[in-house]
User: Fold these one by one.
Assistant:
Number 1:
Amino acid sequence: MRKIWWIIGGIWLLSIIYFLVYVNSLSLQLWVNSSAFGAGVHIAADFCLFGGALALILHFISKIRRH
């Protein structure tokens, strides 16, 4: 079960990196705004960012409550 949390953490970190690049790259912003596939990638990164953060926070709260 520990591997799943490492995977969730890794995907969460990748989504953070994506958004840092997105904010600083005009060409990536134009691609997302002009392409349906780009918008889909952006939405998937949104879900990974918020969902991953929520999952990790709840996991750490659960760990703290057990100990």
Number 2:
Amino acid sequence: MPKYANLSAEATERLRQKTGSTQVECYTYIDPDRSEDSFFIVKTTNKVIHVSFAEIQYEPTSFASLIDGLYQAIYE
């Protein structure tokens, strides 16, 4: 079954602040029952990047921590 990611304004804004790029867009799919199936799609000017929540180190109770972990997974 296909999974659809939705544009996340909050995640997009935080990534734009961290990268300095106004071209970054972040889409999120969150599976409430299976977090390992949750993922991000990050769109830049020349790439589309898929990152599973399982690939990110983050504090589960903090959305900011999740986005910071996403940034680290892609850019560091």
